[in-house]
Every structure is written in structure tokens, then in C-alpha cells.
Amino acid sequence: MSRQVFLYDPPDRFVAGTVGLPGRRTFFLQASAGGRTTSVALEKTQVAALAERIDELLDEVLRRTGGNAAVPAVAPVEFTDTAPLDLPVEEEFRVGTMALAWDGEEQRMIVEAQALVELEAETEEDLAAAEERLLQDEVNGPPMLRVRLTGVQARAFAKRALEVVNAGRPPCPLCSLPLDPEGHVCPRQNGYRRGA
Q1: Cα 65 to Cα 60: distance, rounded to the nearest angstrom
Q2: From CA 168, how far away is CA 143, in angstroms rounded?
Q3: pLDDT in tens, 4-23
Q4: Could you say which of 25, 31, 51, 121 has the lowest number of CB atoms within 10 Å?
């Protein structure tokens, strides 16, 4: 079976979003263009890391070009997207590996999200080699979502993604673990249950 690549160059919309209630949310990346939509599931920490790295990479592009790249310093207000994910949200795959790159000639951010693949190997070196071979295999590699974004689209994506991550349960003021609506067993209180 050949590798399935979901390519959006450029997308009409590329956002991070969730389905479910805080504490039980499933996180998705969703790209859409020309009447088609692709949704891939991932972990909250992956969404946060992706947003932070996009901002860092865009800041580096601005620094290296002396501000001459088509990249805003902050996300323009007119590109704010607060709409929910497009329905139905149908998971194509769960993300395992992500990659970012900047195409200087085209002035585009390239975001790749590859499906989670479980490999078996006897040693760590064998596992690392097997992972590298699989990820570089353009014919038989895991399914992949590849999105090419303008600097403005990338900034807007990063801003929304961080807002989605931070919209979950509030942290406990003592231990920083998430507070559930029913309360929380706080390790800093020797297990005493605090109300929300």
C-alpha cells in the first residue's frame, strides 16, 4: 500500500481544536480547502509544542531576514479564527511525529504530521534506525498531513492553538495540576481534597 499524503497547499483553514469537555478533550489538527477536510488527533502537549515551535521559527525567520520576510510579529486580529472545528470530525490517524520547516523561496511554513507507528526492535539503535527508515520512506511510510502556510496563517494558527490548550481546566494554585469540577487531590496538601 502506498503512503497517503493529505496535502493542503495552501489550506483555506488550518486550526487546532478539541472535541469533548475539559479533562476529557480530544485534540485535533484540522485542515480544509476546496470542499475537503482532514482531521488528525494528537495530544495536548503536541499541540502546545507545535504552536510554540511555530512561533519560535517565525521569530527566527524575522531575525535572520531583518524583518523583510512576509511574517507578522504577532497574529493579525483580522485573521483570528474562533469558530469550532468543521463537522463531522473524522479522525484520519493519530499523530506520532511532527516536523516544521521554512521554505525561504516560497515564504511558506511547512507543517508535517505523520501517523503514530509502533515498531518492534531488539535494541534502541535498531529501533532508531527502523523509525528513520520508515519516516523517510516516501512510498510505504505512514500517512501524513502536510500543510503549507503563509507567515500570517502560521502566526494565526499558533495563537489559536495556544488559546485552545489554555482553555482547559484551571490549574491548582498550590501544585499546578488541573482542577476537576468535583475537586482535586492535591499532593501539596497531603491528599486533602480541595473544592474547585
Answers
A1: 8
A2: 29
A3: 999 999 999 999 999 998 88
A4: 121
Q: Where are the alpha helices (DSSP H) in 68-188?
A: 124-136, 151-166
Global pTM reads 0.83
Residue carrying the nine cell digits 498531513: 145
| Helix (H), strand (E) at residue 45 | helix 44-65
Q: What are phi and psi of 55, to 5 degrees?
A: -60, -45
**pLDDT for 110-142, tens place per residue?**
999 999 987 777 888 887 787 777 767 777 778
Give residue 1's pLDDT: 54
Please give the Cα distance from 48 to 163 (Å, whole number).
9
Beta-bridge partner residues of 184? 194
φ and ψ at residue 59, rounded to 5 degrees: -60, -40
Lookup result for grid cell 531575525: 63
DSSP 189: G
